[in-house]
Design goal:
Elements lengths: L5 H14 L1 H32 L1 H5 L5 H11 L1 H34 L5 H13 L6 E7 L4 E7 L3 H16 L1 H4 L4 H4 L4 H10 L5 E9 L5 E9 L2 H17 L1
Antiparallel strand pairs: 1-2, 1-4, 3-4
């Protein structure tokens, strides 16, 4: 029995059904109906075309519309059976797609993500870092320039700051609440530090006058965020709470 014959295809479907009991049964039913319907359609149309004219059968693809209309006119009962079978196959295939296939595709394509859980995990990661890490902020000149520097900043800690700043933008809840200056900060790590500064966590704030080259005066600003890991941990917990609202 050839694998390409009707019985061969049905046999393959039954083997699949035994190997996957949950999905195979539905696939076997839908597939068998589809195979049988296509086989009947092929058999009756080809037989009718051969009976009508070998020349006409040779032009089946060029004359498919009049051929089908002629077949329906001469074989109404068979046409109705094929139509109903095709309709049943379509309904079953759609039901199978909606209930068995589509949910799995969505689960694979769309990551399972909970913002609150992400912030809780990040808070736990910050809690394991040194309490002596400190960030220093400076602003000077006209137009103003800003710079952050972090003491005792390991590669891992820098990655945590970058992750926190990235999550601020990724969260629809928190992103909508960010100030323009924080949102426009290109570097994710500095975005997180500016976010902390905006929550009044800057200590030792100093503003000193500076004489510029053109003779005008501008202020130099500076400040620190001490215990940066612990401050970040606390703010991550606050962000977690915001995601739950």
């Amino acid at each position: 029995m050839s694998e390409h014959s009707v019985l061969g295809k049905i046999k393959n479907l039954l083997v699949y059904a035994r190997s996957k009991p949950r999905q195979g049964a539905a696939a076997a039913v839908v597939g068998t109906l589809l195979i049988v319907t296509c086989a009947l359609l092929q058999h009756f149309i080809v037989s009718w075309a051969e009976d009508t004219s070998k020349e006409y059968a040779g032009k089946i693809y060029a004359n498919i519309v009049p051929l089908l209309l002629g077949f329906i006119a001469t074989h109404p009962l068979i046409s109705i059976f094929i139509f109903l079978s095709s309709l049943l196959v379509a309904v079953l295939a759609h039901a199978y797609w909606v209930t068995a296939v589509k949910p799995h595709i969505k689960a694979d394509v769309q990551p399972k993500r909970n913002g609150a859980e992400d912030w809780a995990k990040l808070a736990a990661q910050f809690s394991g870092e040194s309490q002596f890490v400190m960030a220093t902020w400076n602003r000077w000149g006209r137009p103003a320039q800003e710079r952050w520097s972090v003491d005792i900043c390991t590669e891992k800690f820098r990655a945590l700051l970058t992750k926190a700043g990235t999550m601020l933008i990724a969260s629809p809840v928190l992103s909508a609440r960010l100030s323009k200056s924080v949102r426009d900060t290109a570097d994710p790590a500095e975005r997180w530090l500016n976010f902390l500064k905006g929550r009044n966590l800057l200590e030792d704030y100093v503003a000193l006058p500076e004489t510029l080259d053109d003779g005008t005066t501008a202020n130099i600003y500076s400040g620190h965020i001490r215990k940066l890991a612990q401050r970040s941990e606390a703010v991550c917990i606050e962000c977690e709470a915001s995601e739950l609202v």
